[in-house]
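User: My collaborator sent over this chain with a note saying "see what the structure looks like." That's all I know about it. Can you take a look?
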Amino acid sequence: MFRGATSLNLDAKGRLGVPSKHRDALLSQCAGHLVLTAHPHRCLLLYPQPAWEPIQSKIMSLSSFDPQSSKMQRLLVGYAEDVELDGAGRMLVSSVLREFAALEKQVMLVGQGSHFELWSMENWRKQLEQVMADEEMALPSELEGFSL
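Assistant: Without extra context I'll predict from the sequence alone. Here is the result:
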């Protein structure tokens, strides 16, 4: 279970050091084999490879003749890259994915349970501002009656 938000720095080569609490879990779950891909919100998704495989299968089972399905296939599968943690617990974020998500030096790694989101600091702050500005934050119908 991946949770929490962590501010991290990309090095000059585009490598990102994964925090040790997550690194240990990733090494035990998937031996450091990960999939990094684009998300429509202009962030990146980081999945342990075994968790990504059923998602990719489901996406690719959709009709490529359906315009919405083919857009998602192009984005999620087309940008998907296999990445591995190196001996120092770092992973390389390709220049293509860094450009897509506007990643510069400072980034946010945000746990989402089964995976992570990787945001540019600027886009993360914008995302938070939008959430906080929504005074009547409507819950999806699936969470009707939910309380904290």
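A starting point for your reply to your collaborator: The chain has a mean pLDDT of 94.
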